[in-house]
Model the fold of this input.
Amino acid sequence: MTPLGFAVIGSGFQGRIHAENVAASTRADLIACIDVDGARAEALAADTGAAWASASVDDVWADPAIDAVVIATTTHTHHDLALQAAAHGRHMLLEKPMAVSVDECREIEAGAEAAGVIVVLGYKFRFTAAARAAKEAVPDPRILVAHTLYDPAPPGAGGWVNDRTLSGGRLVSSLVHAVDMLRFLSGAEVVRVFAEGGLVAEPSLGEPDTTVATLLFDNGAIAAIIHGTAAASGLVSTWSFQAARSGINATIHDHGRRLSLHRPGAEPAHTLVVDPSTDPFRAGTMPLLEGLVAAIAGEAAEVPGSRDGMLSLLVSRCVEEAMTTGQPVMVPSV
Ligand SMILES: NC(=O)c1ccc[n+]([C@@H]2O[C@H](COP(=O)([O-])OP(=O)(O)OC[C@H]3O[C@@H](n4cnc5c(N)ncnc54)[C@H](O)[C@@H]3O)[C@@H](O)[C@H]2O)c1
Done:
């Protein structure tokens, strides 16, 4: 198959990771880098060997060599850019959160369906070797845990995430990862949520940064999430997830780069998978791109799509609501 032509829209932190992956892939060609900050797009194109760079996304739609785009821009722009990509018949890797509201997610889903283009969400943790092996070892977990505390961005870096209108909310911006992994590992849908939390770690932030939440799934499984920017308390986790049932417990550690399986009577826990990626932020990102390329090529590919993007945001919003009201929240059907 001829390599697919790609443009990366958004040449910041995450766009750079995707651009480097596209450039390294044998099944994809990096044609263009785009950013409203033209100098940033130029720099990324120069570093990755992209054919051209621009500050205008219209140049992407005008180039017939571009089959697909990566949208890795500030979250509030995802809706408009994804609808434009669909209208111009381009497949897309759309970063998380899918958009800032569930209504926007619905419109992206409808636009992509109408145009017949494939949307894959940037849920990289699903694509780590550890996550795949955990799901195979424990396909029907009854109890799940996401422990996803992280360092707040250093001053000046990624500051837009603290602006709710740009990111959809600091907490939700990353909580969607935890929700998506729990949906992936459980293979079930969340029906009820309860949560405590609020402004725990960074008083200057002005909005909730940390939550301890419980989820009930439609198959009766239950999950706990500890999530937020708790670095101020020294409680930084390495992003771990657990999926357990009677007789077996799979623990994914270290940003999805290691998996341990524990069976009672078989001490110590056996470490099964070690992802060769040395950068925790890159773990799972290349298989994610390969999943999109396979889906576009019509090959069997299990990839998170628009529905997954919408549901992870919806459940995260329910966590916010439960924190605010102090009441359990039933997840509405969409
Ligand atoms: N999947 C993950 O693990 C992961 C990790 C980090 C960020 N993200 C997501 O990726 C997206 C980008 O985050 P980031 O950390 O790279 O931010 P960033 O600030 O480093 O980069 C965003 C870039 O988008 C550009 N931009 C903004 N609006 C634009 C537009 N309309 N057209 C073109 N360029 C535009 C900005 O100029 C900036 O260079 C966010 O949605 C974020 O939530 C995902």
